[in-house]
Amino acid sequence: MRLAVLRERRVFETRVAATPDTVKKLTGLGLEVVVETGAGQGASIADADFAAAGARIASDPADALAGAGILFAVAAPEPEIRAMIPRGCLLVATIGAFGDPGQVAALAEAGIDAVAMELLPRITRAQSMDVLSSQANLAGYRGVIEAAAAFARGFPMMMTAAGTVAPARVFVIGAGVAGLQAIATARRMGAIVSATDVRPAAKEEIASLGATYVGVEDEESRAAQTAGGYAKEMSEAFRARQAELMATTVAKNDIVVCTALVMGRKAPVIVTAAMVGAMRAGSVIIDLAADAGGNCALTQPGASILTENGVQVLGWRNWPGRIPVASSQLYARNLLTFLTTFWDKEARAPKLPESDEIVKGVALTRAGAVVHRDFLPAAAA
Ligand code: NAD
Questions:
Q1: pLDDT tens digits for 131-145?
Q2: CATH code where residue 329 lies
């Protein structure tokens, strides 16, 4: 069976869904791996590295996809690529199904068996396939590195003969995977760190990393976590109380790292224009939630802006793509683990049992139909 890996086509995408290391393991399963030329360029992997690992290099997507039984991708394929994917092909990618539900129907219509890795259930067995975690962790790290580069004073306290430079104050909004890594990274660099989250479990995690917890604690926040581990969307009343606390906290900090997300929805706006207006000149806001609209009202997804009062708001899209060697390495591993978990050794083909909890979570389409409960056509739901 052929497994294809294409060059990603989004302009800001640098990652690739396989590495020479995973190609070796995939060919070891008995797969013929075909990689489109240039696929690894953004992640510093040359065609020759893929070829040395056992892949055939294809000159274009049509060549790579001809007869393919599996396609590994970072993002969902664009319509013109989708049209080249053979019917019955298993597509494993971060589809972004909630952001573009129309695409789910299009994949079904094209007869592609699509697996949306972002919908993986947060259970122990799935941890090593968890693309959201592997990528969010790196985004959290990278965000703080970019904050440090943009901040003109430095992070640690520096006591010199010429005087003392005060440490930076970093405030992290959302203490999930990205936020916790941001806290740890900022602490390692010598900043004074505080953080907030709505999930009650986060308080202890924030403290265990040596940061100060800041947050509204009430009945609603005590019930703010879904069974799946994600945050719930909070009420207007909660958001108002949170806003008061945020206003005083944001103004006191030099760097704000935004990471708050609500699965399947637009990111909550937590840092308002007025809060940014109260920050000191030279402050930096890093919006890791920019792909979901952003946690800061001034964020322009895909851009860096400088406000009138001298605050930089970095709202880059695809933060994991800004550290592409590591993010490709971990993403490719996540996909390999998914495939090997559902690999039928005798048939030398993937086998996705419909009753499996992981498969139920990620399978979007099968044999020409939408099968995921969240995307069933209204009449059938
Ligand atoms: P996420 O990326 O969906 O959101 C980031 C953080 O933002 C979360 O901690 C969330 O609570 C917070 N948030 C949402 N709305 C907010 C608001 N209005 N104000 C402040 N904060 C807000 O989250 P994630 O990083 O994917 O992690 C979600 C949970 O899943 C965590 O508990 C994490 O530890 C858990 N997790 C479990 C596994 C596993 O067991 N396999 C793997 C990864 C993550």
A1: 999 999 999 999 999
A2: 3.40.50.720
> Which atom in ligand 1 lies closest to the alpha carbon of residue 239?
18
| Pocket residues: Cβ below 6 A from ligand 1 | 122-124, 126-127, 130, 132-133, 136, 173-179, 196-199, 202, 229-231, 234, 259-263, 268, 270
Q: Which element (helix H / strand E) includes 274? A: helix 273-277
State the pTM of this model: 0.95
Backbone φ and ψ for 370, nearest 5 degrees, come out as: -75, 130
Ligand 1 atom nearest to CA at 231: 11
Using most ligand atoms within 8 A of CB, pick from 98, 141, 197, 234 the residue to mutate for ligand 1: 197
Grade residue 380 by pLDDT with cuts at 50, 70 and 90: low
Residues 115 and 226 in one domain: no
Say yes or no: 19 and 102 in one domain.
yes
Domain count, the chain: 2
Q: DSSP states of 132-182 as a string?
A: HHHHHHHHHHHHHHHHHHH-SS-SS-EEETTEEEPPPEEEEE--SHHHHHH
Other residues' Cβ atoms within 10 Å of the Cβ of residue 250: 22
132 part of a folded domain: no
The residue whose CA is least distant from atom 18 of ligand 1 is 268
pLDDT at site 82: 98
Contacts (Cβ under 8 Å, ≥6 apart) of 50? 18, 20, 23, 35, 39, 40, 57
The whole domain housing 259 covers 138-317
Q: How far is the CA of 163 from the centre of ligand 1 (A)?
A: 41
Residue whose Cα lies nearest atom 3 of ligand 1: it is 261
Chosen domain end from 317, 347, 362: 317
Quick: pLDDT tens for 291-349.
999 999 999 999 999 999 999 999 999 999 999 999 999 999 999 999 999 999 999 99
pLDDT of residue 200: 84
Stretch (H or E) spanning 369: strand 369-370
